[in-house]
Design goal:
The chain is an alpha/beta fold and 444 residues long. The protein is built from 15 helices and 16 strands. The longest helix has 25 residues.
């Protein structure tokens, strides 16, 4: 049994006294904090003693309904982002900006500007109800170019027809839209930007693919990509805030839904963090989520257009994949065979506290408690695995079960420490025992 812990030994009789003293200190600290926060001198105390105040969210006017636009059409320039159907019918005066034009602007890394005749008008992005991502990409490009006051037709062109808006069938041509060289960098996340910030305080990466792809279990869709997700990324499907009729939920309701995102019910996303949106690199879900989060009053949000496809294509970048007990057991058997050839095919770390590890643990696992993990990983590897190649050896982490997220955090720390293949055994020791697999320790 291997442990990498620095725990002092205490006599059994000292434990009750220690717990009592610890409880007294906690209670005294709480009373002191309450007194100081109520004191008029509270502003002079260190920030950690002062309750953090957040401003109430401001929900910008972005999504508009067709009836509202119909009564004010002369004041706006409408950009139609549908892939087809423009010549069969469109909002009078609208310009056709099909997906291929938008894709070309995205590929060029630039934004779009309307012809001079329409400068000064506010823009409304319109699309097909079944494909809100196309006009959302256009919205993001205009936002990236610093165009203020851009709006979005909620419910798409179909809602215009349903509202009794007049329809033009005049054939249109795609306008020559110029690239803008000066971009608002606060709206864009590049690969380098995500690589530097994932898993750090104040940043959250949101994976907009389906949950199965985020877990890394649907390998049929990844083809040449490594299955899994960017370390510490959380899954979210933006379609959950779109009604059946294709219209969006109001901004406050979108915010409430998004606020439920987290690795477990007790741990939710911090809406004050900067949100980085990553999709599959082709669907445009990132732009759609960008639009929705802006409606929800979340200002610090960026889209990473390359998405997981660009991330996984770089073999030097780490990927986390969720695994189950059966795969962990199979990999341990494979590792035992590899060790006969002086190879280490898997490093399995139990990140629970040392005492629980001693009670029982997965055979072949080393203990590196989560509260020591970030500061002690290098020392542990130097002592226990001096010849281990971090870039080539998969690292699996586990803790108590799905309601414990220490293994997730430790996988992120390991990724930032140079490991490239991270296996998050989310079910932990609980799933291992439920499957009836053997354990080691004092109580088997």
């Amino acid at each position: 049994m291997r442990r990498f812990m620095h725990e002092g030994r205490r006599s059994a009789g000292s434990e009750p006294r220690l717990r009592s003293a610890r409880a007294a200190r906690v209670a005294a600290g709480a009373l002191l904090a309450a007194f100081l926060s109520a004191s008029p001198l509270a502003a002079q105390w260190p920030p950690w003693l002062v309750k953090k105040e957040t401003k109430p969210p401001v929900y910008p006017e972005i999504a508009v309904d067709a009836a509202w636009l119909r009564d004010r059409l002369d004041e706006f320039a409408v950009l139609d982002a549908r892939a087809s159907g423009f010549d069969e019918g469109h909002i009078p005066g609208a310009l056709s900006v099909p997906p291929e034009t938008i894709a070309a602007a995205l590929a060029a890394g630039g934004s779009l500007r309307l012809p001079p005749a329409d400068e000064g008008k506010r823009i409304v992005c319109c699309g097909a109800r079944e494909d809100p991502a196309a006009p959302a990409r256009l919205f993001w490009l205009l936002d990236l170019g610093g165009r203020e006051g851009v709006l979005f037709l909620d419910g798409g062109y179909e809602s215009w027809v349903e509202a009794g808006g007049s329809v033009s069938r005049k054939a249109g041509s795609v306008p020559d839209l110029e690239r803008i060289s000066t971009l608002d960098s606060t709206r864009l996340a590049t690969l380098a930007y995500v690589r530097e910030r994932y898993g750090t305080d104040g940043f959250e990466v949101i994976d907009l693919r389906d949950t199965v792809s985020w877990e890394g279990k649907d390998r049929s869709r990844t083809k040449d990509l490594r299955p899994g997700h960017i370390p510490h990324a959380l899954p979210f499907d933006p379609r959950t805030v779109i009604r059946r009729d294709g219209r969006f939920l109001p901004g406050p309701e979108i915010r409430s839904v998004f606020a439920e995102v987290g690795p477990r019910p007790a741990t939710r996303i911090d809406l004050e963090s900067e949100i980085i949106l990553a999709d599959d690199g082709t669907s445009g879900r990132g732009a759609l989520a960008y639009l929705l989060l802006r409606m929800a009053g979340i200002e610090k949000v960026r889209w990473f257009p390359g998405g997981y496809a660009e991330w996984a294509a770089d073999p030097s970048l780490p990927v986390v994949r969720i695994v189950e007990a059966k795969e962990v057991r199979e990999r341990l058997k494979k590792r035992d065979r590899a060790r006969k050839e002086d190879r280490d095919d898997l490093l399995l770390l139990d990140v629970r506290n040392g005492r629980d590890y001693e009670i029982n643990h997965i055979p072949g696992a080393d203990c590196l408690a989560s509260h020591l993990f970030a500061d002690s990983l290098d020392a542990y590897l130097e002592k226990a695995r001096p010849d281990l190649d971090r870039a080539a050896t998969p690292l699996a982490t586990y803790c108590y079960g799905e309601d414990c997220i220490r293994s997730r955090q430790c996988a992120t720390w390991a990724a930032r420490a140079g490991f490239r293949e991270l296996l998050w055994f989310r079910g932990g020791i609980r799933e291992w025992k439920e499957r009836g697999f053997p354990v080691e320790g004092k109580f088997k």
